[in-house]
Design a protein that fits this description.
The protein has helices at 16-37, 57-70, 85-88, 96-106, 137-155, 197-200, 213-223, 283-315, and strands at residues 2-3, 41-45, 78-82, 111-116, 119-124, 174-176, 227-230, 237-241, 245-249, 262-269, 272-279. The chain has a 6-stranded mixed sheet, with helices on one face. Strands 1-2-3 form a 3-stranded parallel sheet, with no helix packed on it. Strands 10-11 form a two-stranded antiparallel ribbon. The chain is an alpha/beta fold. Helices cover 37% and strands 18% of the residues.
Length: 316
């Protein structure tokens, strides 16, 4: 199961009622999905928190507790998280403290490979792909190159390999991150949960709405993934890169950011995969049902009251 941009509200930008409503919606949706689909692994692709960047240490601990309460899973299900810009900030404001706090609290290192029955998932912090040699970027580059070497060793394309190579069986990896790969805009997107027409053609800024063109090319060349899954834009999109690399951008999981949210389910083997997008109820429909229900109750109340009054007058 893949979801993104939950944006758990904080004290600065979230009204208490809005916060209560959104968290209840996400809790019910997530737990219902877990009961129905029974996924073995859940990936949350960044912007877990809305105000993670500005939270105090106490506030961040509270954030983590709320997260595990809403997105609780049983012991036999694994849940993995990647960092988003609302969790630690964009590249220019990330500090070692903010980065390490998220890594420690959410058990989410900047680069991670998770291998499950011959399928290799590579999780990367998008804000660490600036290529400027910063405290976060340089170790990230080294880790990505190390994963690439292990993949090439398993594939038989690397000469200086040891017997202790951590990947025994090669399969093209699945790349998971917060930012989409470089694209000019969402104009290419053709999904039911795509961006609205008034913003669909707005050009993306590299390193803000998507990865830079250079970083995207390097990732695709170095890792040669068969699938890329990301979030950040709050809207759905499907993009095809060279070598038929499929990229799926999934929308926000919160109705606060999207009238028609969705999440992604996938089934993987080392040589193939199958994806299915699950659409959640449209909030406008839910609100209309509430309004219709309230009006119906009010009408029923007045009709019942009028009948009672009429009977009393008739009897008198």
């Amino acid at each position: 199961m893949f979801l993104a941009d939950t944006h758990l509200l904080g004290p600065r930008n979230g009204h208490w009622f809005d916060k209560l409503r959104r968290e209840w919606q996400m809790y019910r949706t997530f737990q219902t999905a877990m009961t129905i689909h029974k996924p073995e692994v859940v990936f949350l692709l960044g912007d877990v928190f809305d105000e993670g960047l500005w939270s105090s240490s106490t506030g961040f601990e509270s954030y983590i507790e709320r997260f595990h309460s809403i997105f609780s899973v049983s012991k036999n299900i694994h849940l993995y998280v990647v960092a988003g810009n609302h969790d630690v900030g964009f590249h220019y404001v990330i500090t070692p403290y903010l980065s390490q706090r998220f890594i420690s609290g959410m058990k989410a290192p900047s680069v991670r490979r998770i291998s499950i029955r011959g399928n290799h998932f590579v999780l990367i912090n998008s804000m660490a792909l600036e290529g400027d040699g910063c405290f976060l970027c340089r170790p990230t580059e080294i880790a990505i190159n190390k994963i690439s070497k292990h993949l090439n060793c398993a594939r038989g394309l690397e000469e200086n390999c040891t017997k202790n190579n951590s990947i025994k069986r090669y399969s093209r990896p699945i790349l998971l991150q917060h930012f989409p790969m470089y694209r000019e805009s969402d104009k290419i997107c053709d999904e039911l949960d795509e961006a609205p027409l008034d913003i669909k053609n707005i050009k993306f800024r590299e390193r803000w709405e998507c990865l830079s063109e250079e970083a995207s090319k390097q990732l695709l060349d170095i890792l040669n993934p068969r699938l890329v899954v990301d979030g950040h834009t709050h809207h759905g999109c499907k993009n095809i890169h060279k070598n038929n690399i499929v990229e799926i951008t999934i929308p926000s999981f919160s109705w606060r950011n999207k009238n028609n949210p969705s999440f992604l389910m996938g089934e993987f083997t080392p040589n193939n995969y199958s994806l299915s997008k699950c659409y959640m109820p449209m909030e406008s429909t839910v609100i209309n049902i509430y309004i219709f229900g309230i009006i119906t109750i009010v009408i029923y109340f007045f009709v019942t009251l009028n009948r009672s009054t009429f009977r009393k007058r008739h009897l008198n």
